[in-house]
Structure formats: structure tokens, C-alpha cells
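Minutes, project huddle
Topic: does the predicted pose make sense with magnesium ion bound?
PN asked that the exact inputs be recorded in the minutes so nobody has to dig through chat later. Recorded below.
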Amino acid sequence: MKIIMLGAPGAGKGTQAKMIAEKYSIPHVSTGDIFRANIKDQTELGMEAKKYMDQGLLVPDELTVKILLDRVAKDDCKNGYVLDGFPRTIPQAEVLDKAVSELNESIDFAINVDVKDENIVKRMSGRRACLKCGATYHIEHIPPKKEGICDKCGSELVLRDDDKPETVQKRLNVYHEQTQPLIDYYNKKGILREVDGSQDMKDVFSAIVAILGE
Ligand code: AP5
Ligand code: MG
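Predicted holo structure (C-alpha cells), as shared on screen:
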């Protein structure tokens, strides 16, 4: 099963993608997580991506597309994957379509997690992320067992540099301009499904399972 998660920054794509990955035994592929891991390791790619991410801008397609195509070509993606944060532009979607159709395959669903902008800014300021294993928490909704420490790997949790309120607003603007057109793109292909992302995360997940099947 090949799934794309669509939605504004902070809509809960990552939260739901991790749950989907676990239930359906497919890898969770997040371009944002790949970039953040590279920033942490201070790789050349990470340093280049950071310039854009810190400003709330998209990393250029040339950099992003190659990383994604390399990742989905790995063995663990043979039976499918859930993409979180890719595609984010129409050219990225077209590259993905081409790569998938060259394998005589297709994307099964593009799930749009819909949350209004007002709710997003509140969510982001409470998010805490583990830069080592990619786990995310929320200081009110999903707190870690021990404050500031990742339940899964014991690393320190941080407020992402791009989660500061002024950068979140910029990311939302970029989302509306460059990423929202993908909703129409996948609707025309007949694979778009919508879920209300403002519900409790368990209810959002139930809505997704109702789409994907048990
Ligand atoms: P990326 O890491 O993809 O960030 P994003 O799209 O901005 O999305 P987020 O990770 O912020 O939000 P999310 O939807 O995953 O929400 P989450 O589940 O964490 O990208 C970061 C940057 O990298 C981009 O700005 C760009 O620069 C670059 N980049 C990445 N991919 C790229 C691409 N393809 N092309 C170009 N550039 C790219 O949830 C948010 C918070 O809410 C959490 O605290 C969570 O615990 C909480 N929460 C989740 N669900 C609920 C719920 N139902 N109720 C209450 N709280 C909830
Ligand atoms: Mg995410």
C-alpha cells in the first residue's frame, strides 16, 4: 500500500503516519525527518536544507526529490510506504508519479488531514521533538513520561527551530501557496480522501483506518 499524507504544517501528518506505519507494517518516510537527521549530523545536505527550513521556506525540489527517490528505492519500501511531507509541490508530485508508474505501480491514497490555521499555531508551540529518533510529543496532549526526555530513546526533547510562532505563520503561507494545490491534483486522480484532523488523534486514526481498511 502506498499512501501520501497531505496537510498543513502541524496538522498531524507525522503523528498519523507513524500509526499507519505500525498498523500496516510499512515504512514511514518523512522528508522533514530526513532533513532534520542530516542537520543534526551536520552533513552537507543538512546545512543546505537548514538555510531554507529555518526561514519556513521549502527546500528546493532538486535536493528533495533525489533524497525521496533514493529512500523509496530501498528494499523495505517494496511493499509500500507512507509518505509524510512529500510531495509538497506539483513538480514533486509529477516526479513521484513518474517514478511509481515506471514500476507499473500506483499511489493508493492521498489522505488530507484538515485542520484550520488558528488551531495549528497553538499546536506547534506545544510540540516537542526528538531529533534522534523522530518521535513527537505535545506538552498538553501527548506529554512524554519524563519531562523533556524522549520515551523511546531517552534523548533530550527540543522545540524545533521552525516551530517559533513567526516561522509557523510563514510555513502556513508557503503551504497555502505551494502545497494546497496538491489537494486538487489528487482529487482529479480520484485518490484523495479527507479526514477531520481537529478531532482527538485516536479519532483521526479511526477515520483513516476506515479509508484504508482493517
Ligand atoms: P516537515 O517536517 O514535513 O514539517 P511540516 O509539514 O511543517 O509538518 P510538521 O512536521 O510540522 O507537522 P505534522 O503535520 O507532521 O504534525 P505533527 O504530527 O508533528 O517539514 C519541515 C521543513 O522541511 C519544511 O518547512 C521544509 O522546509 C522542509 N521540507 C520537508 N519536506 C519537504 C519537501 N517535500 N519539499 C521541500 N521542503 C521540504 O503534529 C503537530 C503537533 O500537534 C504535535 O505536537 C502533535 O503531538 C500534536 N497533535 C497531532 N495530532 C493531534 C490531534 N489530533 N490533537 C491534538 N494534538 C495533536
Ligand atoms: Mg511532521
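Observations noted during the meeting:
- The mean pLDDT is 95.
- DSSP finds nine helices and eight strands in the chain.
No decisions taken; revisit at the next huddle.
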